[in-house]
Amino acid sequence: MNLTIVVLAALDGISYAALVFLVSVGLSLIFGVMRIVNVAHGSLYAYGAYAAATIGIAVAPISPWLTYPGLLLAAIGVGTILGGLLERFLLRLVYGRDEALQLLITFAVFMILDNLQRVIWGVQPIFAAAPLQLLPNISVLGVGYTSYQTLLLPGVAALTLIGLRYFLRHTLGGAVILAVTEDREAATAIGINPNRVFLRTFILGAILAALGGALASPTTSLLPGIGTEMIVLSFAVAATAGLGQIEGAAIAALMIGLARAFAIYTYPEFEVLVPYAIMVLVLLIRPQGLFGATRLRRI
Amino acid sequence: MRTGRRTFTGLLAAAAAVAIGGAPASAQDKPAELKIAITTFLSGPASVFGVPGKNAAEMIAEDINKKGGILGVPVKLSFIDEGAGGEALVSNYRRVVQDEKVDVTFASISSGSCNQLVPLAEDLKVMNLMWDCGASSILEAKKYRYNFRTQANATQEMMAVLIYLLKKKPDFKTIAVVNQDYAWGRESWEIFSTALKQLKPDVQVVGEFFPKFGAPDYSTEVSRLLALRPEVVLTTSWGGDLDTFVRQAGQRGLLRQSTFVLGIGETSLQRLGRDVPEGLIVGARGDHWFLHPEMKNKPEFKAFNEAFKARTGAWPIYPVYHMAQAFAALQAAYDKAGKAAGGKWPSREQVVDAMEGLTFQAWGRPVRLREDNQGIEAQLVGTTKRGEGYDFMVLDDMMIFDSTKLINPPNQKTGDWLKTLTPELIKLEVPVFKHGG
Fold it and tell me: Is residue B107 part of a domain?
């Protein structure tokens, strides 16, 4: 393997990992705090993507640069509204119930939202590439890359990781979430409303999923089923890291992204296999995931 | 009890079906309606084909009924979603055949669905028109009585694309492939690459990529291809996968670096708009193009296309024309069987008899059913070009292949036949049509 391949594969792997991290970290955060494996997370990704494309197509004729605030607006809008409704009117009813029931309910929501998505946006692929086309291409060792995928996506992922860490470790809002995660009864006793914390956490996780979708929308065709692809991969990352592990999700996403890219460069037949092979190997050796620990802090 | 009762009802229905099938074929009274069940993708990624196919079926059925139906009997459609998956598809199919007693079925889009439903149709003795599935192997496995493919198979489609490429770009030395990782992606490459080795043995395959079906990102494949610099890149992907791959390749200059061959890209052209350059080679799974050079001036063809555009907002794509071909075959079979029955309503068996060796025509050249029930359908391949009046690329330098020489004989398997090909085949005479010509 020569240096060119290493550099190119690393760039591709990091870009891919950035997107997967954004989605899986939301999944991990929700599980860490609320102990719910949210299959509908894939729908939030898909709705974020479709909402961003819809806004992008509407505002691009005015100014293509407006598509960037459109991405953010789509993520916040979908995460807050859809995430808020889901938590307030559905998930709140099943906290503390059997995990299998929670899984089935979120799976049902996923299927319903998938059908609703078809009703709203139809079945023909939608493409809204304005944000990608606005930024210039860069050349690395003679190979053209879009700066959107090579610089912007990893940049947003890194900022998200740093921001989340800071929020959870150094702010009152984060401390409240940690308190509820560690001991819900004690937190309630000192006046924290756990329901409100759950709602906020779920909305934050939902915004992250929708942000992943919104940021992916300029690079890919939006079509029925996009949420399925992403939720499966996100589960692989979150499980590899250990559910609830935020920094772990970043490292697992990077591992999986890089391994997939190197597979395409060297043994493309293994491209599909690699992320799941890594997950299975890790879980066989460490069932709690790479960074998971049974009694340590969960987020 | 419920299950037992259903099973018993099913057995009774099966027994009745066998009894009807076993009875001597004879003309009957006209029924109130001719029931057609159609399997198509109404969900999942392949609904990009399935929904236009359904729209076409509804439009065509309305038109048939407006004109008095088939032999005076109106047609009634029901649809089964292929996207529901294997078990649900099979049980729904069995239900419409046995409980609703449909007269004919059109199944399916996916070759996987056809593999499941073709033997079932044979067992249930219901006539089935494979209206869109392409796997060559289905009709090579055995000779069926009740199953007919009213369009080409993958062999004809891939051979036409390959010969077009070899005629247009005879000197290329390297090729790479990026296909979806499922049956069609693998089989189409197998046919293409095996034939390529025979027709132009000096070509080197520098990359074979089979990303996951529905993959949202092809950046790594694009990077690898930019580094490998193949002269030709083939992809037989479709739908959102093809759109994503082509756009990502275009954004990073790969479409300018290599000659792209989109094996079944006709369905994506309207969506891709002007984002793709001129010079891409595009196949159409048959001679299907809304500006078909031999059909475009026919008023009825124009009227069909415009009606479809008005109804759906898009020009017809090949699944629409495939659906039209299935209806054309059905109409032709009933006409033929009706004549044979002396103007009376033909029995189901008489209609099946009439299908054998049938020739019919929808919105392309006539299609002929061979003795193995395989359709021999002309193939149109062209090159993208900016077309005045359209906000997407149209096809130019179109070649329409007579497929007779692009398919294995009925008594020989595709794989064996491909290995007998010689470079002489490239000299096949094919008419060329310019856009607007």
Answer: yes
